[in-house]
Amino acid sequence: MKKGKKNTGQVDFVMFASILLLLAIGVVMVYSASSYISLYGKKDSMFYLKRQGAFAVLGIITMCIFMNYDYHKLKKYTTLLMIICIPLLFAVFAFEDVNGAQRWIRLGPASFQPSEIVKYVVVLYMAKSLDYKGEKVKSFLYGILPYLLVSGFYAGMILLEKNLSIASVIMIVTLIILFVAGGRAFHLFGIVTPSLFALGVLFIFSESYRRDRLLNFIDPWKDPAKNGYQLIQSLLALGSGKILGLGLGKSRQKAYYMPEPHNDFIFAIIGEELGLIGCLFIILLFLIFIWRGIRVASKTKDTYGTLLAIGITSVIAVQAIINIAVVTGSMPVTGVPLPFISYGGSSLVINMMAMGILLNISRQTESV
């Protein structure tokens, strides 16, 4: 178990720059992707830009606060946060569903998804607990199973909200943290992963809409007017953009062809307007972020910092991979937003808060 004296220095500038670049691109692309539906639906082409811009500023402020807050102090709030998350996850059922899913708590004009903060609270819990667990993590009964049960409990509650995507993110990140903490590969990839995969298949086929999504992913043109519609429009957008794109603001698919183009499928609009070059640039920024996140985790002076850095980096990485895979037709359609870029105020602020924690960890690493 790594232990060391705290030494506060400079933040990882490359990581800091990649985060701000992704955020800036996100605000611009939310405006570009939403301007048409915003003009005709809200009578203001800048409606979503104003909201996303305000949340971006709030997110930067939040990031700066946590960037200067010693991450070790989060340990004493972890249990309280875990407890608070439970009634929040139940509270969503008091509100009307949206397309059959109950994921949001609405407070006036604002809405909040408890699942967005739960995924980071699970990371905080695992980092804190595994820091004390030490070599016991090599035991399946005492080192692996307890974390699967805790993560599975929160993932199960999120699954009740009909949010399989975020539940999957939580379980994937759990496996990554356990592996980095020293869990045996056979336990994680020989027992747990096949079991979770089988469970996932069971959940997919237990709901008709999930089963339809899977079957339409294989051949979206089989039902082009309904279940395959969104993926087909995404592929049309990406194909239309070619190498250099049609130009910023010149997307055709955002004009009521693609449902809510500023949300989960915003990467398709980026591909249409900025082309393959724009898509590759976004992917490069995420790869740089992941590289710096792993680098920060490898240079921390304590196990808690290592696991916390890996967990936060993994949440962003897994979501980005899933979102891009969905938009490009590489996996079934699921509702995972693209971090920092997709429209969503509470999600953006929570992600930026997590970035502040990660940047604070970068300030307390071993000198190179």
TrEMBL record:
Pathway: Cell wall biogenesis; peptidoglycan biosynthesis. It is a multi-pass membrane protein. InterPro entries: FtsW, FtsW/RodA, SpoVE. Pfam families: FTSW_RODA_SPOVE. Its main location: membrane. It is found in: Cell membrane. Keywords: Cell cycle, Cell division, Cell membrane, Cell shape, Cell wall biogenesis/degradation, Glycosyltransferase, Membrane, Peptidoglycan synthesis, Transferase, Transmembrane, Transmembrane helix. It is an enzyme of class 2 (transferase). The chain crosses the membrane at residues 12-33, 53-71, 78-95, 139-158, 164-181, 188-206, 265-291, 303-328, 340-361. Belongs to the SEDS family. FtsW subfamily. Peptidoglycan polymerase that is essential for cell division. This is Probable peptidoglycan glycosyltransferase FtsW. It comes from Clostridium simiarum.
